[in-house]
Amino acid sequence: MPADLKLDHVANLARIELTAAERERFTAQLGDVLAYIALLNEVDVAGVEPTAHAFPVVNVWAEDVPEAGLPVADALRNAPEQRDHMFVVPKVVE
Amino acid sequence: MAADLPHATIADLAGRLGRREVSAVELMAAVIARTKAVDGRVRAFNSYDEADALAQARASDDRRAAGAAGPLEGIPIGFKDVISVAGQPLTASSKMLANFVSPYDATVTAKLKAAGALCWGRLNLDEFAMGSSTENSAFHTTANPWDLERVPGGSSGGSAAAVAAGEATASLGSDTGGSIRQPAALCGVVGLKPSYGRVSRYGLIAFASSLDQIGPFARTVGDAATVLGAIAGHDPRDSTSVRQAVPDYAREMAALAASGRKWRLGIPKEYFGEGLDPEVGGAVQAAIEEYRRMGCEIREVSLPHTKYAVGAYYIIATAECSSNLARYDGVRYGHRSAEAQDVLELYFKSRAEGFGPEVKRRIILGTYVLSSGYYDAFYLRAQKVRTLIRRDFLEAYKVVDAILTPTSPTPAFKRGDKTASPLAMYLNDIYTIGVNLAGLPGLSIPCGFTLGGLPVGLQLIGQPFQESELLAIARAYEARTHWGDRRPDL
Question: Which residue of A28, B100, B131, B485 has the fewest CB atoms within a 10 Å radius of its CB?
Answer without folding.
Answer: A28
